[in-house]
Amino acid sequence: MTEQVLDAGDGHAPAVNSRRRTTLRPRRPKSKLASSFQTPLWHRVAERTIAVLALAAIAAIALIFVFIAREAVPMFWEVEFAEEVELRDLFLAKEWKGYDEPVFIWQPVGEPAKFNVVPLFVGSLKVTFLAMLMSVPLGIGCAMFIALYAPRAVREIVKPAIELLAGIPSVVLGFFALMVLASWAQAAFGFHFRLNAVVAAIGLALTIVPVIFTIAEDAIQSVPQTLTEAALALGARKYQVALRVVLPAALPGIAAGVVLGFGRAIGETMIVLMASGNAAIMEVFDFTTSVRTVTATIAAELGEVAQGDPHWRVLFLLGVMLFGVTFVLNIVGDLAIRRLQKKLTAES
Amino acid sequence: MRHTKKDWLLAGLTGLSLAVILLLLAVLLGQIIWHGAPVISAEFLTEKPGADMISGGIWPAIYGTVFMTLLMTLAGVPVGIATAIFLNEYASPRSRIAKVVRLAVNNLAGVPSIVFGLFGLGFFIIFVGGSIDSLLYDDPTPVWGKPSILWASLTLAVLTLPVVIVTTEEALRTVPRELRDASLALGATRFQTVYKIVLPNAKGGILTGVILAVSRGAGEVAPIIFCGAANFLPYLPTDLRDMFMHLGYHVYALATQSPNVDAAQPTLFGTVLVLLVLTFSLNLLAVIIRARSRAALRP
What we know:
Mean pLDDT of chain B: 89
Distance between the termini of chain B: 35 Å
Largest sheet of chain B: none
CATH architecture of chain B: Orthogonal Bundle
CATH superfamily of chain B: MetI-like
Helix content of chain B: over 70%
CATH class of chain B: Mainly Alpha
Distance between the termini of chain A: 47 Å
Low-confidence stretches of chain A: 1-24, 31-35
Structural class of chain B: mainly alpha
Order of helices and strands of chain B: HHHHHHHHHH
CATH topology of chain B: MetI-like fold
CATH topology of the domain at 115-347 in chain A: MetI-like fold
CATH superfamily of the domain at 115-347 in chain A: MetI-like
Helix content of chain A: 55-70%
Number of helices of chain B: 10
Number of strands of chain A: 2
Oligomer: heterodimer
Shape of chain A: globular
Largest interface: A-B, 94 and 92 residues
Low-confidence stretches of chain B: none
Number of domains of chain B: 1
Shape of chain B: globular
CATH architecture of the domain at 115-347 in chain A: Orthogonal Bundle
Radius of gyration of chain A: 28 Å
Radius of gyration of chain B: 23 Å
CATH class of the domain at 115-347 in chain A: Mainly Alpha
Strand content of chain B: under 5%
């Protein structure tokens, strides 16, 4: 070893897990030969740096929450905000002047400005629901085909192809939905609005299918061979094994994939921003109208708002709510995956 | 094994869903290559855009994307690798700190990209940049506290952090336990084992993860909309505090805000193709390195 010769007692306690080593080892005499066995200083510095940097992810989550909330919460005490917006109008319907019934309206440039977030969340849920309706069967179907039926050669081609799909930037998918799919869908279904919830949902589905596929395929592959073999030995047909043994055993994993896919869909921005038409219409059941989602609203409007404006605060509040929703979804998905692992290790 | 009708039905239905996805992928790539390839020329790649954003080339957008991606890599990758080393080599998997870090990483991976944009604006630009400005300058015009390539890169570095961590951890896990045990038994310290044994053996896998993260970051647009991407900027960023053009943002701006989308269409398809080639070649590189490092690990 040719590292720098250093004194052991320089006050730097080695970081992480190495404390035991130093306490057990007797202090060596200060000869050049012996001390060359000491840990060089930079090793200890590096170990400590690693331990500190490992906290970055925790710090990031905390900072994200704190600094988005910091721009939103002054709305609860600021006079300028109270003068322009009533807090309950953010969530409840109101009978605005000129309307004959209470309505939910998002109209930030109107006079007076109307900041009801309900239409935006309805828009987000609508597009997400449609996208899930397409991508859950497609994703699970692909995963089952690959895990149960596909010959090896097909698998070797399909898995990289789906990885390729997952690697396409969402702005490209949004562009594809806007330029190509929208026109085709209008020609095929005669949509009144060229850009609408259906077109955006198809674009979204393209990003969610890889998520569901990857997790579902993992879950199906990790079902122990012994289960399927036992079922086959008992005389079950292959489709019976697939539907009644493999699928139920892999269900928590598949559910996790669906939950994480849902989280991805509701947080996706560029595709809905480009392909959904962005009209904040409060229309729950008609999927052929154009919609405005939470994410697209933030992306489209924040650039034009002055810092500290009531509109600015409401947009950051939308961000906080979005963060909260995906945070919960992630924890649920995580728990489902962990439960699956526990279940399968207990069974095999 | 005998196949019944129901077997064929299930295989057919699941196979059909695969066919639908592959068909959509093929149509997408086909359309972009078909319309985009004729636009690509030396001038398109190396010239600055004209004032109408449609004529001329997209060189500033290519340059900005690559520059931003490099900065993002420099800032994010070392932190990601350090976290993965900590989780896999130092912390015991059952320890509370490892569990909390894992939970944070998983959650970070699920935070919507637009929320990262709000974070970049609220934290980096307003808080960090604003604080630097108020400390250094009396002048109220912002120097650091405004959108710039630096803040956009740092925001994306945070966004790509979980990708780096997860893939690096996977790579570290493929290094056989025996190698570590042998090294420790010979008297090497834990750090020497990590540095001289584990990292060299996991090199390929870590590189794969880094490249995948870089490719993900290069294509993200939502986080940089407010953090530094410029609509039209015919000069190249020379300073960290400059704004910059970005291929993905250019596509978004041109497709949604251009007064004449039909005229912009060829430029758009060309730009999309360049962006796709950039991200796909990174992905392809990752796949090749992964295949090689797997082959090398096999006895």
